[in-house]
Amino acid sequence: MAERLMPTYARLPIAFERGEGAWLWSSDGRRYFDALSGIAVCGLGHAHPGVTRAIQEQAGRLLHCSNLYRIPTQERLARRLCELSQMDAAFFCNSGAEANEAAIKLARLWGHGQGIAQPLIVVAEGAFHGRTLATLTATGSRRVQAGFEPLVPGFLRVPYGEIKPLERVAENRQGVLAVLLEPIQGEGGIRIPPPGYLRAVRELCDARGWLLMLDEVQSGVCRSGTWLACQHEGVLPEVVTLAKGLGNGVPIGACLARGQAARVFQPGSHGSTFGGNPLVCAAAHAVLDACESERLAERAAALGERILNGLRQRLGGLPGVIEIRGRGLMIGIQLDRPCGELVSRALEAGLLLNVTAGDVVRLLPPLVISDDDAEHLSAAVSGLVATYLGAEPPVTCSPAPRNGSGEARRIEG
């Protein structure tokens, strides 16, 4: 069957048929701990009862009716997201790439409205914003861009986490109208900028009249330990993009904006056939309900610290480990060598993880894992990394503690 798929992924030789919480079961009945969450998508884990119920109930009423008409559940979702993000308006789409594409179009349209004939958007080295032509141009990876030239003009690239290069752009280039950044670079290797960096960018944008646009596709929806990662520094952008964890597996993205930026799009400026239909909005409401009732931002912050501390205790100082870093449940272990082989080794041990930027083990577990799960994950990953570096024997990902009924424990409060 797989030969009929275009080979856009080097797929691992495994298929999953069901999930529960942080666990997945393959078609041969084996159980795996999911420390990747579908690349930060399933923040509530698998088969979350609230999301399941919302999808079932909405599917029995109305799936789709087009944005040619009012969609009340979409309007309510826009209001909730704007209140959480301090934004004024939302545009709904189907993915993070589409949300970022909307942000880029919004910025260009805003720039032309300011009389800028050739508008420029500043982006960062190591960034990942998507795979459409505009977003892959904004992405700071030649591997992603290669073969798709000519790329879209209108982007300037600066080092991530350094304010001086951005100040030089402000001094020497005309036509800049916006800065597009990830508050935490996910695909780039869980790179967290130094304290004060986002505030400095905000101040420079204010001084120059630029839009600050933050890509929170991976870091948003409580994953970093706050609703948005930019809230760690109290930074308020003009534009925020969301996707991934917003639907817990149902495809939904959002471009949120405030002030003048929220009034740039007019009828005909932009659109989406499926974006924000009743089904995906019902799922997103269920995600927000769970984030609030289960206090998942606070849980992510506490669990992240627990996992980081465990990894540092077990791997800190080990030759070959450059850095162990993270914020909330975005965690990276950078090694001094390529480590893509760890993905298959982890799979053999019953653990799903990811290697990004070539040498960074990336962990993005569900936000609903228990304290026991967090300890279990820290020990299992430490064993795998230590073994890979030749420091200790391999480990297997044995099941985390379960309650007497055999059901995975759900976090309370």
Total domain modules: 2
Percent helix, as a range, is 25-40%
At the fold tier of CATH, the topology name of the largest domain is Aspartate Aminotransferase, domain 2
> What does the average pLDDT come to?
94
Low-confidence segments, ≥5 residues, pLDDT <50? 399-413
Major β-sheet annotation: 7 strands, mixed
* Gyration radius from CA atoms, angstroms: 21 Å
Number of helices: 12
* Spatial strand order of the main sheet: 4-10-9-8-7-5-6
CATH architecture of the largest domain: 3-Layer(aba) Sandwich
Order of helices and strands: EEEHHHEHEHHEHEHEEEHHEEHEEEH
Query: Structural class, judged by helices and strands?
Result: alpha/beta
CATH class of the largest domain: Alpha Beta
Question: What spatial form do the alpha-carbon principal axes imply?
Answer: globular
Tell me the span between the first and last alpha carbons.
44 Å
Q: Quick one: how many beta strands? A: 15
CATH superfamily of the largest domain: Type I PLP-dependent aspartate aminotransferase-like (Major domain)
Which percent band covers the strand fraction? 15-25%
Commentary on this structure:
The protein is α/β, with parallel strands linked by helices and 413 residues long. The protein folds into two domains: 20-47 and 295-388, Aspartate Aminotransferase, domain 1 (Alpha-Beta Complex), CATH 3.90.1150.10; 62-293, Aspartate Aminotransferase, domain 2. The protein is 34% helix and 17% strand. The protein contains twelve helices and 15 strands. The chain has helices at residues 37-40, 49-59, 72-85, 96-113, 133-138, 142-145, 163-172, 197-208, 278-293, 296-315, 341-348, 371-388; strands at residues 16-20, 23-26, 31-34, 89-93, 120-124, 155-158, 176-181, 211-215, 239-242, 253-257, 321-327, 330-335, 351-352, 354-356, 360-363. The strands form three sheets. Strands 4-10-9-8-7-5-6 form a seven-stranded mixed beta sheet, with helices on both faces. Strands 1-2-3-13 form a four-stranded mixed beta sheet. Strand 11 and strand 12 form a beta hairpin. Helix 10 packs parallel to helix 12 (371-388). The radius of gyration is 21 Å and the shape is globular. Residues 399-413 have low confidence and may be disordered.
